[in-house]
Design brief:
Elements (H helix, E strand, L loop, with lengths): L1 H39 L6 H29 E6 L3 E7 L13 H10 L4 E3 L5 E3 L2 E6 L5 E6 L13 H12 L15 E6 L2 E5 L45 E9 L7 E8 L12 E7 L2 H9 L5 E2 L12 E7 L1 E7 L9 H9 L3 H8 L28 H10 L3 E2 L5 E3 L2 E2 L1 E5 L4 H17 L2 E3 L5 H10 L4 E7 L7 H4 L19 H11 L4 H18 L2 E5 L2 E6 L10 E2 L15 E6 L2
Parallel strand pairs: 2-11, 2-12, 13-23, 18-19, 18-20
Antiparallel strand pairs: 1-24, 3-4, 5-6, 6-8, 7-8, 9-10, 10-11, 12-22, 13-22, 14-20, 14-21, 15-16, 16-17
Helix pairs in contact: 6-8, 7-9, 12-13
């Protein structure tokens, strides 16, 4: 009985629950039908309104983005920042980073990065302090005093003092050391006054002397226990040099075996103790190639950041080319000691018969003309005393009066001998264009020009022996106009440097050169140099052409590397501690 009641009660509860579930389901279905499905049909009446609002919202967002992008230039700019690795390609071989011995472009590049001098050049190619905090010269012009910056250190942490400065320049003077800089330091007495002061005593005033203080300083402790005869071959020079320059030695790696694929990598890291401040770059890697095509291919493959291109390189779009004008002069030097060019009349006729501006145009790039032995802007330069200008008619008359008469073949003859000139040159794209221009211009005068092609070594031999009638060559002058070694009679002596390529001799020029280089006052130097300029114009020992350029190719802008005048290619590194290549958007303050 009890069980039956329980069973009936359970069935009633179960049925009631089922009815409730049915009611809820029915109510839900009714709600969806009334509140959703029936209202979906009304959307087609408002879709245009909804679409318009959506489009308006998209336009507002897009306009805001365009406005932000357009106005970003007013509050954001792309600015260089510190960091990044910089890699540079050079053609040649690496042998010696020691500034006492470095002469090639590769060696001087590494030397300039690792070592620092007392003085350096600023972005305007003016002398500026490097390791020195100040320098001055006394009233006699013979005593220079240099004060070092405080707290200088070598890259190994040891202190850099006046002892190191004295050691460096006395080492250059030491004949056993065999430094190529020795000649310019003879007769100079170097003395340590105290730990931070050095004096240089000259036998005679020399206006150009301060420029010698840009030579890198080396640590005395690196060579103190070695005989001077072994300094040149010391491991210090090429395996573990220690300097006080912007970058310190990190590693050296040699890749490849064959000449065409051989590559030397010299990795350098920033020196935090550099006198002018720690470099902005994280590292600097010098890649040394023995084959020009391999270097260009490596650059085009974006494996290096920059390169000093070979002369045959054709600039490609997308790269940045820096053209630096050098304080140098490309000239045709006439052999005044023998042959047809021993006659000053013939030399003057060649000068007047040469269209120098036309030859400059053949180069295909802008450059500065050379109109005499001094460069425009230098102390002593006088625009009123320049080489003879273009006058083909007068040039022909001069040759005729000198006895050189035109033959049936258009060439001039005298006593049965043709007016023939052997013109030597180093070759290359630029020199080839210049030689062709000279041959053309001189042919108009009735001159037969023979221009043999020389290998690099053969050309050096020709230069050393002065075995030419004329030679197309470039001389480095620098900021100071002391051109004594190029034009003084003493420099024709085989015992001298023999850089007087014209073998030019003039007592008037000699006296003026000596007087000019020993005067410190710019006005007085200008006065003293004028007789030299006048003699040079009259004697025409050379034909001035143009100031050569130094090309440097990069993939991107190198901030801090500004277009300016350089004294030599290595001077591109004068401001290397401020170079930057990495950029980012920075909000203006």
């Amino acid at each position: 009985m009890q069980f039956r009641r329980f069973k009936l009660r359970f069935r009633r509860h179960l049925k009631r629950g089922q009815n409730q579930v049915t009611d809820i389901s029915t109510y839900a279905e009714d709600g969806l039908e009334r509140h959703l499905f029936k209202r979906l049909g009304h959307l087609n009446k408002v879709w245009r309104f909804i679409t318009a609002w959506i489009l308006l919202l998209i336009i507002l967002i897009g306009g805001m983005l365009v406005q932000i992008t357009g106005l970003s230039k007013y509050y954001q700019t792309l600015q260089p920042i510190a960091g990044g690795t910089y890699s540079e390609g050079l053609l040649g071989t690496f042998t010696n980073a020691n500034p006492l011995y470095a002469t090639s472009e590769v060696d001087t590049t590494v030397s300039r990065l690792v070592f620092a001098g007392l003085l350096n050049y600023d972005q305007n190619n003016k002398l500026a302090n490097d390791l020195a905090s100040s320098w001055d010269v006394d009233a006699t012009g013979t005593l220079y005093t240099v004060q070092l910056r405080p707290n200088l250190t070598w890259q190994d942490g040891l202190k850099l003092t006046a002892d190191d400065v004295v050691f460096t320049f006395k080492a250059i003077q030491n004949p056993d050391a065999q430094s190529p800089l020795a000649a310019s330091w003879q007769g100079v007495t170097i003395t340590k006054t105290n730990a931070s002061t050095v004096t240089f005593k000259l036998t005679n005033p020399l206006a150009a002397f301060p420029y010698s203080l840009t030579t890198g300083i080396v640590p005395a402790q690196a060579f103190g226990n070695l005989p001077a005869t072994s300094w040149r071959s010391s491991d210090f020079n090429s395996l573990h040099p220690v300097g006080a320059g912007p970058f310190e030695w990190d590693a050296l790696q040699v890749k490849g075996v064959k000449r065409t694929d051989k590559e030397v990598l010299i990795a350098l890291k920033p020196f935090a103790g550099y006198a002018l401040g720690m470099p902005k770059l994280n590292s600097f890697v010098v890649h040394v190639f023995t084959d020009g095509k391999t270097m260009v291919d490596t650059f085009n493959g974006n494996q290096i950041s920059a390169m000093v291109p070979p002369g045959s390189y054709a600039q490609k779009s997308g790269n940045k080319q820096y053209d630096f004008v050098l304080t140098a002069a490309n000239m045709v030097f006439f052999n005044t000691s023998e042959g047809v060019l021993a006659d000053a009349q013939v030399r003057r006729a060649l000068v007047q018969g040469t269209d120098v501006p036309g030859i400059q145009r053949l180069l295909g790039y802008p450059t500065l003309p050379v109109r005499g032995p001094l460069l425009k802007g230098q102390i002593g330069y006088d625009p009123t005393v320049q080489q003879l200008g273009l006058d083909v008619s007068t040039a022909k008359q001069v040759l005729g009066k000198a006895g050189w008469l035109v033959g049936a073949d258009g060439v001039r003859y005298k006593a049965g001998k043709p007016l023939s000139i052997k013109l030597a040159s180093a070759g290359g794209r630029d020199h080839g264009k210049v030689v062709n221009g000279l041959k053309h211009d001189w042919a108009q005068l009735g001159v037969k020009t023979i221009a043999p092609e020389y290998s690099s070594q053969d050309f050096q031999n020709v230069l050393a022996a002065h075995a030419y009638d004329a030679v197309l060559y470039g001389i480095s002058i620098g900021v100071d106009p002391d051109v004594f070694v190029y034009w003084d009679s003493t420099q024709t002596d085989p015992r001298s440097t023999r850089l007087n390529m014209s073998l030019y001799k003039s007592t008037t020029a000699d006296a003026a050169l000596e007087a000019g280089r020993t005067r410190l006052d710019p006005v007085l130097r200008t006065i003293k140099y004028k007789p030299f300029l006048e003699s040079w114009k009259q004697d025409a020992p050379a034909l001035g052409l143009y100031q050569p350029r130094y090309r440097y190719i990069t993939h991107q802008t190198v901030y801090g590397l500004d277009a300016k005048t350089l004294n030599n290619g290595t001077d591109r590194l004068n401001n290397v501690h401020n170079w930057m290549t990495v950029t980012r958007e920075v909000t203006n303050k």
